[in-house]
Amino acid sequence: MRGTIAVLITAAAFFIFLYYIQKRETSRNQMVKRMEFFSGNEDEEGKKIALAKNLDLKDRLMEQVRFLASHWNKVHQNDTMDLRMQQADWPLLGSEFQVMVLLISIVAGVFAFLLTLKPVMALVGAGGAALVCMLYLKIYISRRQAAFLNQLGDTLVMVSNALRAGFSFMQAMELISKEMQPPIGVEFQKVINEMNLGATLETAMENMGRRMQSSDFDLVVTAVLIQRQVGGNLSQVLDSISNTINERIRMRNEISSLTAQGKLSGLIVGAIPIFIAFFIWSNNPDYFQPMLESPTGKGLLAGAVVLELLAIIVIRKIIDIDV
């Protein structure tokens, strides 16, 4: 019964939101019509209105997100979140992502409250949804940066060969942007775009290093900037850096293989208590009920959660070997 009520209320809220979008779009179209009547630009504005009507639901939702984000950006500007969007290569501003996370958290909180009718579960649902969104962003950026690092050695070899063939460094970067797969091809294209807009090579390369946050690429940036100031054989320097980076990648992969057993052991040991508790609760709830109701049982559960988190942190510190 609760599930049915939750679905009905969620559907009603969704249709109310669609009605708000449609009403706002209608008022906007009426304003555009009045403006085009007095400006004498009826045909062009009519085309814009027709194009706006053909927008799908996703585009209209994104338009509302941008509208809310513009007001949120006036109140709170977060340059760090803008950098995170650049690191993920998502076509969003930091304020837009924050508004999307807020909306998802509100929907999750309302749905959790309708299912349980408990305000605490609404807070848990909203906080959990926000945490999942931020965790997904962090994992996505980490994987993208790791993929960039794996491509960096081969990229430096291509740049070195292009320089030996008579290409300039700018032409070599254009070659990389066209030939290499994302993310490194996309990042070099961003460097070229920034330079075309008037930025210096130093600024564009430093921005790229800020997005990737890689000590290996920082070494490449330093070598390129020093070579532009004092001269030298850049292709030979890039070959040396490429060999160093490839060796470090090989060592990281070897260490990852050696520590895989420790990672799996930590995962299994951490999951066993949770699995046993869920198994007992699902098969005999009355047997496990004192643990959830008595103050002693709640204290033991809280202590178990704290110890689990400490164990995870310790295991990660042991297997996290910096190369």
- Low-confidence stretches at least 5 residues in length (pLDDT < 50)? 37-54
Q: Approximately how much beta-strand content do the residues carry? A: under 5%
Mean pLDDT rating: 79
Briefly note the structural class of the backbone: mainly alpha
Q: What is the terminal-to-terminal distance?
A: 56 Å
Radius of gyration: 27 Å
What general outline do the C-alpha atoms trace? flat
Largest sheet: none
Number of helices: 14
List keywords for this structure.
mainly alpha; 14 helices; 323 residues
Characterization of the model:
The chain is mainly α. Helices cover 88% and strands 0% of the residues. It is built from 14 helices and no strands. The longest helix has 46 residues, at 119-164. The N and C termini lie far apart (56 Å).
Topology, pairings included?
Blueprint: H1 2-39, H2 42-53, H3 57-75, H4 79-88, H5 94-116, H6 119-164, H7 169-179, H8 184-196, H9 201-212, H10 215-230, H11 234-258, H12 260-283, H13 285-293, H14 295-319
Helix pairs in contact: 1-2, 1-5, 3-5, 4-5, 5-6, 6-7, 6-11, 7-8, 8-9, 9-10, 10-11, 12-13, 12-14, 13-14
Provide a brief overview of the structure.
This protein has 323 residues and is mainly alpha-helical. The protein has 14 helices and no strands.
